[in-house]
Structure formats: structure tokens, C-alpha cells
């Protein structure tokens, strides 16, 4: 799901330098190591050509790491005049031949990573390596104190996804659940003005006893709450309620908070705090997408979990769009229960 957009010449320079026989793996550039973890890289070029032989630099990249190089010249070259088009790829990394000032403006205005090839900084993708061990009644932490290191001042975002089947399982805990949702959103949503709406997606699940807060009521409460965040841009809220028969049900046992470039795992529940006191003992991991150990092959990078979850969500949303009469998933948008294909009119809207 993570896609890089870069001029062909710049990519070739990076590949030549880092795949040279004289370059030790330990000395390879971090950007190069990130590239090798991806499935696709999109390039722009004055001349398109096929990479067929070992004499072609990008052929070696494709063959060695299983990456597919795709031309997207028209799209990449149009970004300067149509910067809003970067929102078509919410997990995109745009490394463009533009000024640093223009790149910074696109990143700030649209919530995706955008950098000038004259100044590429991989730190925006790196894991801050934050782990918090909460104990019951612990008052040392809040959602804000845990998440402030990955807020949009450093890592851009325009989409946040919360996954917790049991977030609205208990009517008695509704107020507390809403407080936790508010705390997460207030900690992670940009405080500066965006030139696009910010999307919040909440994925909840059917309870075995059939009880819980009705989707219409929960969606209405969450959407009304967003006005209290006082953000200088629209916030769109979608809530997906899926049943035991849903193919996504088994993939959403664990509790996660995802943004475009971060993944946070709560060991037990997102409804973690009650008046700033922890409700249970649980670890919470706050991560960027890549770590040095992951890039060097000593462990999985957080990117793997992020990618797998995003892919599972998008695949099932696409299936539901094509089968809008299914009872496996109900959906709500900005406080109203609506058919899922009313929210997403085409596949491209969720890529």
C-alpha cells in the first residue's frame, strides 16, 4: 500500500550507488533500504523504456528485490500544478523535482509525505520506538502524552483508522469510549489548516450476545464530537460495523490506530482511560513504519503490519462496494447510516 513517486534519474542514482559491488550492505542508504521493502515504485521520465537486461539499473532493482517499476510520468509531472492530486494515494511518498518550499507546502496542506529530491529526509518514516506499559489505575499516561511524538507536526496524515470490535460493546461505557476517541483524535489530528477533509474511520464488530450501542447512535455521537476538536478543516467520519460472517472479522481481533504512516497497537482495548486513569493493564506500542533493525532484516518493520492491515481493509471495502446488499457490514457516514457504496463511489477513492 505504500507507494513511492520519484523521478527515474534520481532513483537510478540511488540504485547505482547502493547496488555497486564496492558498497557493503551495512553502508547502504536508508532510503534505498526502504525502497527495497516496497512492491511498486512509480517513476517519471522524459523517455519510457523497458528494463530487460542486467545492464539496466532498474532491472537489477526489480530482479533483486521483486519490485515492480511503473511509469507515472503524466501524474507525477502534474502535481506541481495540481497538488491536490496527491490525495489519490494516501499512503504515497512523493519525492519530487520541485523546490523545498513547494514540497513543504504540499505536505502541510494535504497530509502526505512530500519532499524535494534536493532534500530527502527518511526520519519521517522511522519508528520512534515508543512502548508504554499501563497498569490498572495508572495515571502516568494519557493518549496525548503517548501519541504526541507522532503527531502531524512531524508525521503528516489525512486519514486515521481505529480498529476495536468492542469500542461500543457496552452501553454503560459509551461516554468513556467517546472520551477515549476524542483523546486519540485530539492528539493525532493536525492543528494547522489542511486544504482537504480529514477522514476518520472506525471499525467495530458484532457482539456475541447481540448487545451494544446501535450503529446509528454511535456514529451520530462520534460525528457530533468532531466539532469540539476545533480543527480548521472538515472532518469526515465513517463507521463500519461488521458481523462474525465478515471476512474482515478475523483480521480485527487486535486493537490498532493507523494513520497514513504510523501504527499504534493497544494490547487490550482502545477504551484505555477513565478520567486519565488506566482502566486495565496493557502494553501500547506507538510506531512509525520502519526501524533500522527491520530494514537490516533482523526483524519485521512495522510497515509489514501496517501494510497487511491496510490491504485487508481496502480489499474488504472493495468487496462490500461490489456487493452493497450484503449484511456482513453496515456503514455510517457523518452520523447517518448509509449503504457503503454511497460512501465510496469507486475503488480509486480508497487507494
Q: Give the total of beta strands.
A: 16
How many angstroms does the end-to-end distance come to?
8 Å
Q: Identify low-pLDDT runs.
A: 346-351
What's the pLDDT, averaged over the residues? Answer: 90
Keywords for this structure?
351 residues, alpha/beta, nine-stranded mixed sheet, single chain, 22% strand
Describe the overall structure.
The protein has 351 residues and is an alpha/beta fold. It contains eleven helices and 16 strands. It has a nine-stranded mixed beta sheet, with helices on both faces. A five-stranded parallel beta sheet has the order 3-2-1-4-5. The protein has a two-stranded antiparallel ribbon with strand order 12-13. Helix 7 crosses helix 8. The C terminus is likely disordered.
Explain briefly what this protein structure is.
This protein is of the alpha/beta class and 351 residues long. 30% of the residues lie in helices and 22% in strands.
Topology at a glance:
Layout: E1 3-7, H1 8-18, H2 30-35, E2 40-44, H3 57-65, E3 68-71, H4 73-78, E4 92-96, H5 100-110, E5 113-116, E6 130-134, H6 143-147, E7 159-163, H7 174-188, E8 198-205, H8 215-226, E9 235-242, E10 255-259, E11 262-266, E12 273-274, E13 277-278, E14 282-288, H9 292-295, H10 302-322, E15 329-333, E16 336-337, H11 340-343
Parallel strand pairs: 1-2, 1-4, 2-3, 4-5, 7-8, 8-9
Antiparallel strand pairs: 6-14, 7-10, 9-15, 10-11, 11-14, 12-13, 15-16
Helix pairs in contact: 7-8
Amino acid at each position: 500500500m505504500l507507494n513511492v513517486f520519484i523521478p527515474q534519474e534520481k532513483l537510478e542514482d540511488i540504485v547505482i550507488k547502493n547496488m555497486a559491488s564496492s558498497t557493503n550492505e551495512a553502508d547502504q542508504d536508508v532510503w534505498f533500504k526502504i525502497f527495497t521493502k516496497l512492491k511498486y515504485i512509480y517513476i517519471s521520465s522524459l523517455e519510457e523504456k523497458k528494463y530487460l537486461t542486467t545492464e539496466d539499473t532498474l532491472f537489477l532493482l526489480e530482479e533483486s528485490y521483486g519490485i515492480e517499476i511503473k511509469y507515472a510520468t503524466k501524474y507525477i509531472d502534474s502535481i506541481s500544478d495540481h497538488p491536490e492530486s496527491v490525495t489519490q494515494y494516501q499512503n504515497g511518498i512523493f519525492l519530487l523535482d520541485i523546490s523545498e518550499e513547494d514540497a513543504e507546502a504540499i505536505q502541510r496542506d494535504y497530509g502526505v509525505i512530500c519532499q524535494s529530491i534536493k532534500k530527502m529526509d527518511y526520519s519521517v518514516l522511522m519508528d520512534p520506538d515508543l512502548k508504554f506499559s499501563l497498569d490498572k489505575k495508572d495515571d502516568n499516561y494519557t493518549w496525548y502524552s503517548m501519541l504526541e511524538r507522532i503527531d502531524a507536526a512531524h508525521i503528516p496524515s489525512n486519514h486515521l483508522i481505529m480498529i476495536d470490535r468492542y469500542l461500543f460493546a457496552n452501553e454503560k461505557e459509551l461516554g468513556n469510549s467517546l472520551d477515549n476517541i476524542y483523546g486519540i483524535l485530539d492528539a493525532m489530528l493536525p492543528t494547522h489548516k489542511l486544504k482537504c477533509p480529514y477522514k476518520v474511520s472506525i471499525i467495530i464488530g458484532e457482539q456475541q450476545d447481540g448487545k451494544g450501542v446501535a450503529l446509528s447512535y454511535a456514529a451520530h455521537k462520534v460525528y457530533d464530537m468532531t466539532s469540539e476538536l476545533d480543527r480548521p478543516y472538515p472532518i469526515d467520519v465513517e463507521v463500519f460495523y461488521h458481523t462474525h460472517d465478515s471476512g474482515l472479522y478475523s483480521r480485527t481481533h487486535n486493537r490498532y490506530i493507523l494513520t497514513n504512516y504510523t501504527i499504534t497497537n493497544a494490547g487490550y482495548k482502545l477504551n484505555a482511560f477513565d478520567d486519565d486513569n488506566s482502566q486495565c493493564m496493557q502494553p501500547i506500542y506507538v510506531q512509525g513504519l520502519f526501524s533500522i533493525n527491520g530494514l537490516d532484516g533482523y526483524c519485521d518493520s512495522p510497515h509489514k503490519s501496517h501494510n497487511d492491515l491496510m490491504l485487508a481493509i481496502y480489499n474488504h471495502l472493495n468487496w462490500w462496494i461490489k456487493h452493497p446488499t450484503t449484511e456482513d457490514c453496515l456503514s455510517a457516514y457523518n452520523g447517518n447510516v448509509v449503504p457503503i457504496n454511497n460512501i465510496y463511489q469507486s475503488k480509486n477513492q480508497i487507494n
